[in-house]
Structures
1.
Amino acid sequence: MGTSVKICIIGAGSAQFSAGIVRDLCVNPGLAGSHVVLMDIDERRLEFVLQLAERLSAELQANVSFSKTTDRQKALKDADFVLNTAQVGGHQWSEDQRKLGEKHGYYRGTKLHNFPQMHLFLDVARDIERICPNAWLIQSANPVFEGCSLMHRETKLNILGLCHGHYGYLEIANVLGLEPQYVTAKTQGFNHWIWLTDFRYKGEDAYPLLDEWIQTKAEAYWAKADFEFWDNQMSRAAIHLYQMFGLMPIGDTPRTCENLGVGWWYHTDLTEKQRWYGSLGGFDSELGWQKYLDRLSDKVDDIERAVTDASLKVTDIFPPVQSKEQIVPIINSLVNNVEGIYQVNIPNRGGIVKGFPENLVVECQGVVNGSGIRGVSQEPLPAKLVAGTMNPRWSQAECMIEAMRLGDYHLLLSCLLMDQRTRSLTQAEGYLREWFADPRNEQLAKVFRIHP
Amino acid sequence: MGTSVKICIIGAGSAQFSAGIVRDLCVNPGLAGSHVVLMDIDERRLEFVLQLAERLSAELQANVSFSKTTDRQKALKDADFVLNTAQVGGHQWSEDQRKLGEKHGYYRGTKLHNFPQMHLFLDVARDIERICPNAWLIQSANPVFEGCSLMHRETKLNILGLCHGHYGYLEIANVLGLEPQYVTAKTQGFNHWIWLTDFRYKGEDAYPLLDEWIQTKAEAYWAKADFEFWDNQMSRAAIHLYQMFGLMPIGDTPRTCENLGVGWWYHTDLTEKQRWYGSLGGFDSELGWQKYLDRLSDKVDDIERAVTDASLKVTDIFPPVQSKEQIVPIINSLVNNVEGIYQVNIPNRGGIVKGFPENLVVECQGVVNGSGIRGVSQEPLPAKLVAGTMNPRWSQAECMIEAMRLGDYHLLLSCLLMDQRTRSLTQAEGYLREWFADPRNEQLAKVFRIHP
């Protein structure tokens, strides 16, 4: 018999995300009888995802039920778990903000788009605190680092941020030709800013294998024609960061350095991006990002076909095995006291990542069981890495978190003034003025007391 | 009867500094019988300063004796207090480094010149640890913040950093037309990065008086023709920083923001400097700095005349009253247990400035008496100020301190990459290469394992 829980997905219109969760839930007998509330403001996509969920569940003969709503507060009623995957305004708003950034001199845009996101996060978190205060909030939409820290400071919720980036060590193992079952890894830091503190192959330190690869094979790897269309983990930039600071940056870390104070120099223009991330200039270049959007769109088309064509099976796209997504296994660990170790983003209580405030959400390993989540503390990160990468990243995050928490225009402006591309106060102020004037930022402008 | 102490001045060739200390010592009966060792590597200037000191002492009929040496280790023998005021390579090396910075795209140079300074500081500190480990090291040469933090991390010495900047509140009082004897002020932060946390006139909060001045009189002040040839404390930049972050920046703070992550936007070129600091563009512009050097040179000429012309009196230039310089009064407080409150830079033990590491040297009020120096803790600085100014400044200082402590090239490079004017990795690396190739950096290049 399973333990039935009520899971609410905010931003459920993302077919791939929602179907992944539903599939994981369907193949997890421990959670049989559970109910999923799909919530999104896009009715068309919501209806589609509901059909998808029901098809998947039927194909898998699972005991999971579904409902949908566009009303967030209704959705939260009696929820045990709330997954927040919502992207404010979707890809369109992201791209429009990026374009505005470029107009004001910021190639590929700035981190301003984090503010509408964090504004929504706070709204959701406050609703949860009122409607289902004992629920776990599982945050997967970005910015996980700043957003979770902000919500932790402003509410009493149980907050857990999750991300896939930490699996990047497997890509290193793959390129080095190591058998993955013998590879172990530990990482810690902040989300999208994690470092490989321990890397072993068959129990032995595997860093020397990486060093040898850099010496003997890296140039050939970077030169080869069938280079992955985006490459972060084994890019020239990742290796250069390793050589600068002494530990490998994992997952999103080597790409996130973009205009975050450390690593901006890999991203000054497309040519520089191509030099450091291969022919497409990495995931975040105009070329890499377009590929990503195309791929996403192809995937959505595939899903749509599978749902609408009765002759196709949804399980061909979502095979009936637990994915690498940690969400459902963690829920199972929590409600059924099945202890497991996961990669989590949780408040830094007791100084899990040493040298940073307790009210910051850090990324680390976490032991999850019926009593909750306990972060696993490691040795302090090396002094060099802390001074060169962790402090600068933390300092920028603090400015962003506090700008949103206080609704303070000058801190928001400071976030921009810290961007390496900003050339003058006038530039930053002009950009902010136009950004706030967009009707989609109307609520945000009120928070920051901007009166156009 | 006074308590005789042995005071060693490193870099004693600075006539103005040394004579100021000697004068203060001569007028302080509590330290009668003391001996001052003047140490410098410039024999000519050293001889001159010795004559100056003896003239002053004779005119004041003081019981203070002097000796000179170019041998630092001899100078330190049995010292009770070591004053470090040395500037490596003097103004010439500073100007040459600045020129090199400008060649590589950094208007008015960068903070690289802090490294030769910190390298010397460490040498001196290690000598003291060996030769006179119980002495107090009083650091007045810059960078006081990074340098004292570095020495504190690397030695067990009693370290005290001193600076005049905190008196800046008197300039505010003066411009506001307040009678100085009724004005009190508290500041805290890091050296050259302190903020006016408490400002009172006749016991009442005086910030409203400042706000009124800004509303009604500031524009006229900034526009007036007889504007001070450099102005930091009441400059447009200082007021703008106050408006951004909520507290007044004091003393060197509104000028030091130059290329330190916060405030770079006031310093992009001479025109911008003039807009924010008046017609000469402030103390650090090419115009303001030349005035400063000229003034210094005039002062030295005056002193030289007074020493060499028997018909003149040195006490006309250094009148026989205790100056505002805290060094001698603090020595008196320490050795004669005369309790006083001073503005000090000391290790942040117990978190005097809250939210920053204990191994950082912070600026605060300190109670000084026969037992030593106890920092006075204040309320935490406002969250906005911390996020917008203190964290970024701290993060940059950490990178500089740790770069020097570890002798790490990549952290040194990171300090440059954090400079807002850096446009590419190539630019920063090229600049560093040429800087290290200067013969005056030969020892430093070894520390950083640079092999040209």
2.
Amino acid sequence: MKKKFLGTIILSLIAVIIAGCGNLQNSSLSTGGTDDSKKTKTVQTTSSSDGNSYNTLLQGKQYQVSPIAGLVSGNNDNQFNLQSFESGLIDVSKKEFPTKNYTFQEGQVLKANTVQQWIGRKSSQNPDGLNPEDNGKKEPNDRNPLYLSQIMENDFYKESGSNYALSGVSIGLSMNQVDYYTKVKYGSTYKTKISEAKRIEQGKKMADEIIQRMRKMKQTKDIPIVVGLYKAEESDSLVGGSYFMYGVSKNGTSEISSWKDLSYESQILPVVGEAKVINSSDADSFASFKSHIQNYFPKLSGVVAKVHYDNGTLQRMSITITTQFYGESEVRSFTQYTQNAASTYLPVGVPLEIKVESVNGLQAFISREEGQKNFYAHVFNDY
Amino acid sequence: MKKKFLGTIILSLIAVIIAGCGNLQNSSLSTGGTDDSKKTKTVQTTSSSDGNSYNTLLQGKQYQVSPIAGLVSGNNDNQFNLQSFESGLIDVSKKEFPTKNYTFQEGQVLKANTVQQWIGRKSSQNPDGLNPEDNGKKEPNDRNPLYLSQIMENDFYKESGSNYALSGVSIGLSMNQVDYYTKVKYGSTYKTKISEAKRIEQGKKMADEIIQRMRKMKQTKDIPIVVGLYKAEESDSLVGGSYFMYGVSKNGTSEISSWKDLSYESQILPVVGEAKVINSSDADSFASFKSHIQNYFPKLSGVVAKVHYDNGTLQRMSITITTQFYGESEVRSFTQYTQNAASTYLPVGVPLEIKVESVNGLQAFISREEGQKNFYAHVFNDY
């Protein structure tokens, strides 16, 4: 008996447009009272025409990092939070600022010292602190916790004649579910848990306060401001947190009139112990995939997936396969086999990313990009 | 003034065929006097229809590693040698066993204890040793060096009815340019340099000896045997060695009648100090690419390329860019920018691989695959 399965896979497209734009006069990038209108700047953008990503502004021919990137209060050191806090704000922004119409730049309006004050506790020295005053108490349920740990800003520009004008801003507020603190310097870490109700109440209040402050700044006086409220995951979580609510302050208004709920969730598969899977069909698909590849290639130390949901619907799946492979031929064969298994077993219609790695680093990479049916695979080989 | 450059990039295809094949009777995989003809085995292959890679046999439903993989004599610990020794033998094999007609399996004919003896020194205890006897001398130019450090075998199968029959074998011999040794156990390392003439003479002699031995084995009695002679790079080289000569022993003959020269070379760009570039046009292209991306993204710690040539013609270029980037947006913008720069500045018509990495691992990946005009790019994001 003989069987042949034939699967033809044609791959995806990524297009690149580089738009170079001359004189940036009357720059919307000018700050405070400075008049930049005499300066001539060169603005270039890096762009992806896949339609799902923003073009990015390269001001003065260089990429501009937000001055507030990385400013944090509190002691939550979950690295995944940093990444999902950033990429999540882009997702939220897309709801209000379509990628086709807006060009992205990391936030340049809020300055580092401003945000450093805002994420601090309110005190006589720091009247602008958004976190509550220290009430002097040390017990988890008696003290005032830090509700806000981080602020992020994204700027969105529109082409306006030969210039780019700032036309929208998104603000992300990272809200604690748990505030980690020490009673004495370098002492043990304690936790204050923050209820969902309190987190929402505080997030909304801080959002309105920030909008009012930004309406006093020249650049953000009358453009739409989106605020996303992000729920940071606990320190020991293997996934990052997610945005749970967002609202828009339309041109010039001083508050968010209506908030919309978001229900993003991430999870690691297989789940450990009694934990409940978000979607059992996806979990079953992954289990079939896993057992299929382990059957033919027993030298796999680990096969885990990270799944991301929006409102219960799978958004993407990232799989990491750890191998004990020795040679390139084995990696190549495994990659071909895995690609086929992915196509057979894994959920369709969502982006997939599969990393094959050993202790020496990435050996191969397989992906199915957003909006694509077909797979791309690459085997790394050093020579 | 305003300029727009438009580059549309459509990506590549990878197709997958899984051929499952039933009963492997009269197995060509049987060894020595054992008769496997009564056994029923399931053979499956993993395959890539890109035409440049071999389909791989999955015997007994699992990938079979060669029992001689990793057996080494001597003290050369250049990790790149291991990879180029393996991938180079595949390249040499393609000259004699076209990927369309043959299915690959890692070598199963030569056994570990056999090869362990062959790569050892000849002695009364080890009459089959291919390396010369120890003459008792310790000085670099007086002692007999180890000429041969490693043997690799690749097997090539053809479909024969409902079976796969072993139809060709390739043998790689890793020859030392420098033999590293110690005068006393755990002592300092000394070097014996081996002349090109001596290396070629020894390689050819060992090749014929191995063919004669393999002609006495049932499986390789009368099929073509390809032997590739590989020149291992020195321990401290940043590139691996390369195959410098190969020959074919046609069906059943006991030696290689004619040898063909190979001139593969690898190099790191930019070159250090007074070193001479293999191809100045490629080196200039890379320098332009490098300065272009560093101009817009100053936070790059390193931009280096590894180039591989066959007879002075560029075969592939692998670029590693080390960044100090903080956030995903910056990586995404940089990736788009780099892809465009690669398309503008780097040599056309050869496979390109660009890795963007920080101390935390791979951040993004860009490639142009064999035979493709267009680029693929992927940004890694954990959430």
3.
Amino acid sequence: MTIGTNTDIYTRRESQARSYCRAFPVTFSKAQNATLTDSDGRSYTDFLAGCSSLNYGHNDPDMKEALIAHLAADGVTHGLDMHTNAKAEFLEAFERIILKPRDMDYKFMFTGPTGTNAVEAAMKLARKTTGRDTIIAFTNGFHGMTMGALAATGNAGKRAGAGTTLGGVVRMPYEGAMDGVDSLAMIRAMLDNPSSGIDAPAAFLIEPVQGEGGLNAASGAFLKGLQDLARKHGALIIMDDIQAGIGRTGPFFSFEGMGIKPDLIPLAKSLSGMGLPFAGLLIRPDLDIWKPAEHNGTFRGNNHAFVTARVALEKFWSDDSFQRQTEAKAAYLTERLQGIAAMVPGSKLKGRGMMQGIDVGSGDMAAEVCATCFEHGLIIETSGAHDEVVKVLAPLTIPQEQLASGLDILEAAVKAQGASHQIAAE
Amino acid sequence: MTIGTNTDIYTRRESQARSYCRAFPVTFSKAQNATLTDSDGRSYTDFLAGCSSLNYGHNDPDMKEALIAHLAADGVTHGLDMHTNAKAEFLEAFERIILKPRDMDYKFMFTGPTGTNAVEAAMKLARKTTGRDTIIAFTNGFHGMTMGALAATGNAGKRAGAGTTLGGVVRMPYEGAMDGVDSLAMIRAMLDNPSSGIDAPAAFLIEPVQGEGGLNAASGAFLKGLQDLARKHGALIIMDDIQAGIGRTGPFFSFEGMGIKPDLIPLAKSLSGMGLPFAGLLIRPDLDIWKPAEHNGTFRGNNHAFVTARVALEKFWSDDSFQRQTEAKAAYLTERLQGIAAMVPGSKLKGRGMMQGIDVGSGDMAAEVCATCFEHGLIIETSGAHDEVVKVLAPLTIPQEQLASGLDILEAAVKAQGASHQIAAE
Amino acid sequence: MTIGTNTDIYTRRESQARSYCRAFPVTFSKAQNATLTDSDGRSYTDFLAGCSSLNYGHNDPDMKEALIAHLAADGVTHGLDMHTNAKAEFLEAFERIILKPRDMDYKFMFTGPTGTNAVEAAMKLARKTTGRDTIIAFTNGFHGMTMGALAATGNAGKRAGAGTTLGGVVRMPYEGAMDGVDSLAMIRAMLDNPSSGIDAPAAFLIEPVQGEGGLNAASGAFLKGLQDLARKHGALIIMDDIQAGIGRTGPFFSFEGMGIKPDLIPLAKSLSGMGLPFAGLLIRPDLDIWKPAEHNGTFRGNNHAFVTARVALEKFWSDDSFQRQTEAKAAYLTERLQGIAAMVPGSKLKGRGMMQGIDVGSGDMAAEVCATCFEHGLIIETSGAHDEVVKVLAPLTIPQEQLASGLDILEAAVKAQGASHQIAAE
Amino acid sequence: MTIGTNTDIYTRRESQARSYCRAFPVTFSKAQNATLTDSDGRSYTDFLAGCSSLNYGHNDPDMKEALIAHLAADGVTHGLDMHTNAKAEFLEAFERIILKPRDMDYKFMFTGPTGTNAVEAAMKLARKTTGRDTIIAFTNGFHGMTMGALAATGNAGKRAGAGTTLGGVVRMPYEGAMDGVDSLAMIRAMLDNPSSGIDAPAAFLIEPVQGEGGLNAASGAFLKGLQDLARKHGALIIMDDIQAGIGRTGPFFSFEGMGIKPDLIPLAKSLSGMGLPFAGLLIRPDLDIWKPAEHNGTFRGNNHAFVTARVALEKFWSDDSFQRQTEAKAAYLTERLQGIAAMVPGSKLKGRGMMQGIDVGSGDMAAEVCATCFEHGLIIETSGAHDEVVKVLAPLTIPQEQLASGLDILEAAVKAQGASHQIAAE
């Protein structure tokens, strides 16, 4: 099969909704850790990593081996929400490796297999347990495409997809969203004023780092203040750690060490370890008032994902070495990005951990940088309200040299931009 | 690992929302075609088939082989919506084997990987293209658990999970839902009356056979009449073929041969062939007005599912032999169920194709029948507003003898019920 | 001032929303009982009566005298919700003359001064006391133009005025709305089916006779059955007696003698007796859980209306003679309308009491009949989903001869229609 | 009739929703200009003025005379929306005296007779003309009690009356609502950010001075900036001048001289001049896209109000002397209130024109001040989110000496508070 053929079939049969393939119009055939290979045998370094769904890289050999073994043994593939070995082993590993060492006591809810299902389950449970309707979400937040989660998503383009007005969500500025405005103080003032018109909220729904919204990273002080405010007003904290969690910022949860105890934690993306569809909701045990089957779904029992997720936990989280490696890479990333940002007047470093990028000030420039990178074998994307942030989301497992060479490509692309702009200005 | 350990971990760590595992409290270790095996080595015939997600049975050897080969070759696992070999091959197979022979012209939208994502995408697109808000859904309809799809789901228990009032959906009686009421005439009267208070609808959202709602099967006349009414009033038909499609009633689509051309067709469940999370939306080409990324999602590129789905299409749908086999089994099923129904005064045969069951008149009796079946090695579940329908959803690939022996168990369980009721009455 | 001037000013300065003046394009200067006089001195018999706001006719001399006396004495005009003599006297008269003799125990809530305010207050209170959202309203119902009441109004044209989708209301067929459908049985089936998708309602909101919707009159059996169903499902009955009440059908309340005890009764239109803005909500005492000022409004204390309303109660309702006179006129009206209806093949008599009319089968014909009547000095309007009902809403106080002569004009207009149609057909 | 009787009837028969009568538990019998007289003959100075519905005082002799003459001549009382002399004369006076001299070109829409009807009509038309749903309203805003207007009202107590969640409105801080936050900059940032989650608004709905919300007065710069922002984003400005308009701040409209051209202006309260129920909506002519009867209502033709409103316009607005008198009184009021505020540490002067008051820092203290005033013959009320503002809303026509003596009572009451607090503290 040639690329040409492939492209034709998409034009002919795939919906216009498709997007990434437009920026990277080749056919990918193979993938290993941080490297994608196209059908012509060309290799690309992956700084997109499935939008943080591939924190452990593509096709981790241990996960792959375990999955092949499971398949070969006719292990259960689709298990609804029935008991299976793979499920029990995942749950036990999650309890032993993740929850216990962090002194976290949560119930695990297997929602539908993608992030938006976990967010919807969280929103439903927050409303159900509090008897309130309003969810407070934040500027630039991204939570999913189904009606409930979409109402909490800020992006106007995505919202327009609904074809109708989205309700039940009140919007507040994220930390730092408004120059000169103390967002937390403003939210507090709105909630403390009985005539503000803001109804008592069921929950705050927030990402510790806004991946799609432009790599805005909330401080521990902000999140802690929000948690205090939530407690005061009888509201829950839904900490959407779908993109920032599972090690992306260093620790397993992105909010570790901040003194935060979220009430509900939606997880997805890298949860399966291998990029398989898998999402879950961590629930403070006393809030787990679901009746049996009150929230169900066909693919809650993706046992392939249970197998690889369990391997991922055992392999990467049994001690703190993976976290330390990530933090070291993140420090290197910060250093390199600072150097690159220094080349673009007015640009800003954004994000935290292995979820950093550069706000280059315009979506056009960011797009050009990414296009140039792709020409040189680097897959990298933008984020932000104006797509103005060039975002590095490399697999956490990327070899140091590949991380460096990828950043070299990025640096050259930014430099070329500067040169071409200077030329244009002359 | 012992069963005891497994059960403890669920009690300790899984949300109360879990359900099927309560009725079948064993740990399943292996699965092959229509047979599940528990950790003690006991075998069960599967008349549930992942709620119609396993129409080709568990772990089909050809799909399994193809998936292992894909894994071994480091084929792309998670591909966002980028071009991959597996995706192109799936799309081409779908076009060649499904669309062309049926003279169907649709775009394929890769929504999130579960049915509710496809339904939400359909509802959004219907509203967006028509500029209208109201979706007309039907009594006993089941469409998913996210806010948009849940609004269209009839079940009060599921709706209560929302914790808030669900809007945007108007409810009409499904064919036969009201004794003595011609549902279609009633819907027509409501839409034709400009003071009825029913706003011009964006779409009708309907299942050709209501799987969860009690195996209610709409006639071709009803669906055709609905389509005519939709055309007259500028509304779309969203034909939710998630549970009834992919061969469950015989043909690939459950509405084949009825003269129906739905505008939007959500698919999921058995689409991947192997029970992997995969959903899609077929879109009438002129309605495909999505902007790039207007509806996105992390797991739209589950390449494992593309691989197995393609194998499934090639293996089962390249000619009509599979459909004929299914129809033959369905005829046998009808015959056996008629015999069983005759044993329960007032009971009724429900459904169509390999999606049939018996309304035994009470949820308690249906639950007892299912529990007795499970004791004898048959996994079978109920459906309906009062869980009053014992539902046979065996894999279409089930060997004839196993279908027969499973029905023997069911027959015996129903007979035992009759006996015990008679005894109780004496 | 000439008429010309007047008409100009409307074209120049009044919103396009104006309507009745388009059908009756003269300037009215005086009004006494059932007679309106225009600025040219021409007299018209009023079969519209302010859409049932002038049940006692225009400018009743006793009400007028009392109001002039109140004005002359500098009685309070605008009293917010403070205690005034006029208010106390109205409340005492209402208790003594209306509530006590009927053994009705209700609290009186002074809502804003027009019907929609009373309906909104009722909807709010029904939701607040039940903790439920859904109000079940009926095909062809008319309840007002503000967002809450408009959601319950059926007319598509009025609904379009909202510019947005109206929520919180589920629509059911009114008695007789669907040929061959037992509306009550259908509603019962929908509420008894836990998977119908109809959420448990806060209330049924219904007009005993639908004035705007086409003079559809519910039977006592239907209303009683609805009340039983409401009790069973924990819902309230809001009996909107705004147009049908205050004597229009004979008794003070249109549902008297049917064994109905509504939970909430919005009143307006003829409540003030003289056409002054005045509305109220009767509340079953245990449902009166409003906090002080929880529902307020500037014009709840229209003392002029209290004065005239009190006079109306004392003058017309101290004994049953007025009701008997109305019933006698209604019998005469029925007889005459039967005669007229007999002249139009396929036409139907609609309504009850002094709220009757003829469905002539088409809005065009009804409009022509009304236009012809106006040419001959009779003000009469249409109602119904297609404006197909010629509606007689004469003041209840209309002299018998004037009623007769008005009906003569109507009869002649209908006859002329028949003649012209016959001619056209020839 | 004794007071005792009166009070009993309210307890027995009036809804708990009643409020002002609780603070002023006497029965008022007469009212003239700024003086109310109770049934025992005691007089009170009225600093409440029907919440600004009696800007020209109670029972203005000229309006009274005109109304008695209209009654005596059997002028039309209730005219639906038909042409009458009284209506034409009102419209012509409004055009000649109000619109033309101010170079304002608006259509007048006769909505239902109270403020909330005018606000609802404005919200509907804004949504209808823009095709958008979201109305941006402000903290502490007050717009009415029907579902649409209530959604825009900030007060939590009022909102709780809905018994359901109110949608379609996004809340922004009013000028000065948040310490250290530039409200206009914040709103601009939210609208300019395409990922803020704030949908493009149909309109801003704002009161130039927030009467109920605590006498917060927006500056011309803020309102002008808002208008510029609205123009930029294709949104309308709905200037709710119901309480602040009709001369309350000096000029006829409270926003005169600020360079503001609102798109829609709801008016009510003092519009009739005499406290009769009357509301209207001024519409920018090109936005007047209503279809005939698209928004209707029973009491749009309250001819008594047309008569008195016309007299009010002719008497008070034919030249600028009334405005100048009001401004002189307002200057005196400012001076006196500054003196009184100086007696309460931390208190603040609020408001503008004859709509000023003192924020005394606590609702308890404000209530005690008002209670003491009432004991000394002054009717005065609080406003604000915590009822912390003692609000002076005297008739604009109040004689200077009576204004002075009323303020003497207020000053003494505040002084007494100070003394008692000092005593309590000692």
